[in-house]
Amino acid sequence: MTQDRDLFGNPISSGAAPSLDPVGSLTSVTSDAPLAVRLRPTRIDQILGQDHLLGPGSPLRRLADGQAMSVFLWGPPGVGKTTIASVISQATGARFVELSAVSAGVKEVRAQIDQARRELAHGRRTVLFIDEVHRFSKAQQDVLLPAVENRIITLIAATTENPSFSVIAPLLSRSLLLTLKPLTPADLDQLLDRALTDPLGVHPSTGGDYILDTDAREALIRLGGGDARRILTYVEEAAASAEAQGAATITAAIVAQAVDRAAARYDADGDQHYDIISAFIKSIRGSDVQAGLHWLARMIAAGEDPRFIARRLIILASEDIGLASPSVLPLCVAAAQAVGLIGMPEGRIVLAEAVIACATAPKSNAVIMAIDQALADVDAGRGGAVPAHLRDAHYAGAKALGHGQDYHYAHDSPHGVVAQQYLPDDLLDVSYYRPTDHGGEHAVAERLGVIEQILQRPRSKSSSD
Fold first, then answer.
1. What is the CATH number of domain 3-179?
2. Domain covering 185-259, topology
3. Residue-wise pLDDT tens digits, 393-410
4. Which terminus of the chain has a smaller tally of CB atoms within 10 A, N or C?
């Protein structure tokens, strides 16, 4: 089901553009429309958080100036994908049509392309905005190809998933891919100011403006999680709650009551940030899966960057698990990639899987101990010249210098292991890597014992010896 809509999502006739007052706000918007609709930008300069796409000569600027092109907007919810399409439509005077890939089929797509062709014959272009385009089938995407290629429509397609994996290559190659970023705390702070002061914002029935205290502001920004629509919904509900209580000040308690979520204190740059991530890592290191999930939930609820959490899990997999369970590191790397591809809230499932895998895996810090001890020796100046038989012998004159002489090729040995000096003279007795007997590292320890016996080196002691 489709409908021509104005910048605020209100239905309009196909032949009439929405009227603007002198400051650019739609006069047709009603006071009972949602705050996120009332405050939707009407000019490209009002778009927050996407400065990297709004510079002079940028694709969005050129679109707004009337240049015909099609774009895919890839980003998390609430960062302005629909808004960008609406603003571009308004700036160019184009007909704006929105389709949802959840409900629209091939028939609806064809109908809109046919209508766009008729409108173009009368000199009016059509901006076709398709939300959640990754849900379109290949057949539906194929229908768009001729219209995009021949510029019958300006296609603006929004997706929360990487288009490289969900959009057919011919359609993607005929369009620009623009990546939108989550709104920063500074962006959300600016949005809150607008919500409280704009004539279309939230105001007590008694007149004046609401006062948003510091804790409430911080709570809303955390709960907003980079999503403009969410934070505007929350502040609107908090204002309604304050109104019901006869309060002119919105407090953190009112915010928590209004959104039915605890406004837990969490300063992304302060003690809470570091304390909680510390508790998170130490709980997983201690194999307490329940505690690990709790601290994960605390960070997610507070709006912590999921990519930061994923990076810390990758580090933990190497530092605290290592070869005791070598499959955990690639699992954590895959989790980080998955979070980048699908974003939140689904990313919470991926992170939880990685946390459970890390917490329940056998632990070993033998790898970090090994590399740190090796680095300590290097920093202390230990390590002499490379033994002559290990030096590069692939250049003229190397043989005369004795380079490579008496080197034994490991693959000529029955076991693929050959005894010869590999370390500098002053490090012959070092033992950096000391495997534990935890999990898979027990088998590594046994094999290492055999290898070092063949190498005629002192056997590396297990860390449990």
1. 3.40.50.300
2. Helicase, Ruva Protein; domain 3 (1.10.8)
3. 777 666 767 777 778 788
4. N
Question: Among 384, 358, 364, 332, which residue's Cα sits nearest to residue 433?
Answer: 364
Which structure tokens are listed for 98? 């929105």
The type of residue at 15 is G
Strands (DSSP E) found in 307-363: none
Best CA proximity match to 277, nearest among 250, 324, 247, 316: 316
**At residue 71, what are phi and psi to the nearest 5 degrees?**
-135, 150
Residues 6+ apart with CB under 8 A from 253: 263
Q: Tell me how far CA of residue 233 lies from CA of 130, 176, 261, 393, in angstroms.
A: 23, 31, 13, 70
Residue 131 one-letter amino acid: D
Alpha-carbon distance 267 to 31, whole Å?
A: 35
Q: How far apart are the C-alpha atoms of 50 and 181, rounded to whole Å? A: 7
Q: What is the pLDDT of residues 200-250, one digit of tens each?
A: 888 876 566 788 998 889 888 888 878 888 889 889 888 888 888 888 889
CA atoms of 438 and 436, how far apart (whole Å):
5
Q: Domain spans of the chain?
A: 3-179, 185-259, 271-360, 380-454
| Domain 380-454 of CATH type 1.10.3710.10 | yes
Q: How many Å apart are CA 252 and CA 249, to the nearest integer?
A: 10
Do 392 and 409 meet the contact criterion of CB atoms below 8 Å apart? no
- Radius of gyration of the chain, Cα coordinates, nearest whole angstrom: 30
CA distance to 49, 362, 425, per residue, from 374 (Å):
45, 24, 15
Q: Is 42 exposed, middle or buried (0-12, 13-18, 19+ CB in 10 A)?
A: buried
Instruction: Report pLDDT digits (tens) over 269-322.
Output: 555 667 888 899 999 999 888 989 998 998 888 778 889 899 999 999 999 999
> Which CATH fold topology does 271-360 show?
Zinc Finger, Delta Prime; domain 3 (1.20.272)
Under 8 Å between Cβ of 278 and 294:
no
CA 200 – CA 31 distance, rounded (Å) = 7
- Provide φ and ψ at 99, rounded to 5°: -120, 145
Residue 202 tokens read as 């939230």
Q: Which pair of tokens denotes residue 346?
A: 């689904």
